[in-house]
Amino acid sequence: MENFKISYTAFLFCFLTLELCNCGDLRKNFYRTSCPQAEKIVRNITWENAASNAALPSKILRMHFHDCFVRGCDASILIDSTTNNTAEKDAIPNRSLAGFEVIDEIKTQLEQICPGKVSCADIVTLAARDSVSFQFNKSMWEVLTGRRDGTVSLASEALADIPSPFLNFTTLKQSFATKNLTVKDLVVLSGAHTIGVAHCNLFSNRLYNFTGKGDADPSLNATYAATLRSQCRSLSDNTTTVEMDPGSSLAFDNGYFSTLLQNQGLFQSDAALLTSNLANGIVNEMLISGKFLTEFSQSMKRMGAVGVLTGNEGEIRKKCSVVN
């Protein structure tokens, strides 16, 4: 009996220790002792930039998404190309990414206060949350921290792994499933298209050459298609941008789903959500007041945990754009 008590006590201690430190994994307040001001610094700088640049949330969100879908959330999207390597940042899907200077500003200040402590991967994940939260003047979801930075960044992997706006539902579902993300995550995270703009060449085939015969996508609302054609004058226009959520591209809300159900989803991948009964049902759920923000918070937590490096894996980059 005495041995049982000792064993049970030891087990309980071990369990509580694991609960407290969650060793090797992400956890709440990872920087509590190593850099207590870390999360506040990320928030303050992100909010300062969002105050002067209303488009910042869409930019940082997109950066985070594109990072997590290639090698996991390891900040490999931030690494610059070298003479011997073309990095993710220079892959075709990433050439229009922006907001890198905000991440650099945050990293510079953190390195001055807590050198070598806060990863670029955590900075991107926190900044994505904080950029969206600026509109609401409060943190919209909890971010567990403890990510470490990757040391590999390949343009070829970005081209292969980042979901294309031209995908059908089956391929989209498979793409998300490889990251352990569900159909609900796919639909909810697509709701990020409620903010931001897109270049014409990412959807102009739906206006001018959908099946290769000079036709339009019949699933696209005809009035909306005419409006888009007045902005995107040709199939090859790769400089003009249009709002992804017409008239509401700066407000983070569930407007995307209302627009989608009116057959005004901009991308082929948006329209694809209506071709699945399951996904269509989730789209309709997002119209319930407060539902989208709640579900988006949960899906962002799941995406932020994709393929993370923790413990002794990877490194803490001194400069986000360069491997140590």
- CATH fold naming of the largest domain: Peroxidase, domain 1
Known CATH architecture of the largest domain: Orthogonal Bundle
Strands of the largest sheet, in order across it? 1-2
State mean pLDDT (0 to 100 scale).
Answer: 92
Beta-strand content estimate:
under 5%
Total strands: the figure is 2
Which residues form runs of ≥5 with pLDDT under 50?
1-24
Structural class computed from helices and strand pairing:
mainly alpha
Distance between the termini: 54 Å
Structure, explained:
This protein has 324 residues and is mainly alpha-helical. It folds into 2 domains: 26-161, Peroxidase, domain 1, CATH 1.10.520; 169-303, Peroxidase, domain 2. The chain has helices at residues 2-21, 38-52, 56-68, 100-113, 120-133, 155-161, 169-177, 183-190, 205-208, 222-231, 255-261, 268-271, 277-285, 291-303; strands at residues 197-199, 241-243. Strands 1-2 form a two-stranded antiparallel ribbon. The protein is globular, with a radius of gyration of 21 Å.
